[in-house]
Design a protein that fits this description.
- The protein has a single domain, classed as Serine Threonine Protein Phosphatase 5, Tetratricopeptide repeat (Alpha Horseshoe).
- The protein has about 60 residues and is mainly α.
- The chain is about 80% helix and about 0% strand.
- The longest helix has 15 residues.
């Protein structure tokens, strides 16, 4: 997890770094932090379909 966080710090304009970190956060149950990483990833790459889908899933789970 620390490596993925460091990756976002070393490569702050890499949408994939944020996407990967978001995925890891989601797998560990940190939904709000994961959502933030997916939002950043999508901002950097609006065509990130897997990130958009993951963010929508998180939002649906937190809305219920």
């Amino acid at each position: 997890m620390a490596t993925l966080k460091l990756n976002t710090e070393l490569f702050p304009i890499s949408w994939n770094a944020y996407d990967s970190y978001g995925e890891a956060l989601l797998l560990t149950g940190k939904k709000q932090e994961a959502a933030s990483m997916y939002e950043r990833s999508i901002k950097l790459n609006p065509d990130n379909k897997s990130g958009i889908k993951a963010l929508e899933t998180i939002q649906k789970r937190t809305d219920n």
